[in-house]
Amino acid sequence: MIGGDGLTPAVRKEADAALNAHGLIKIRVFNDDRVARETIFQELADSLNAAPIQHIGKLLVLWRPKPEIEKERERDEDRMAGPREVKVLKYASRGGQRPEVKRLRVLGNQRLTPGGTVKRAKPKQKSVKKRNQS
Question: Does this model's pTM top 0.70?
């Protein structure tokens, strides 16, 4: 929202952050002068390197392609289902001994419990009607 102060550096900074996060944003301008809204619209589009999409009443719509972030792509690859190697420390019941290190392979349909055991996912349950049909 752009208030009575008009287009300030803080407004530009927030609009830039919103374009980086979402790509398409709507900005509401609380100004009754249509010419002033039109100049704000063009100034924002030029300064943020965004495309002016629409100006309906007091609502301005800007678009800019979202930048690709490498960290998100790497994080998504880690979250993919599939086998992964996990180290599990099993501590001895007596205090002075070394913990036992086990390397486990956890598949996509399995999970690791806090105790260090591997559990498989439960099979998907069928409804009563579908069980009776087969």
Answer: no
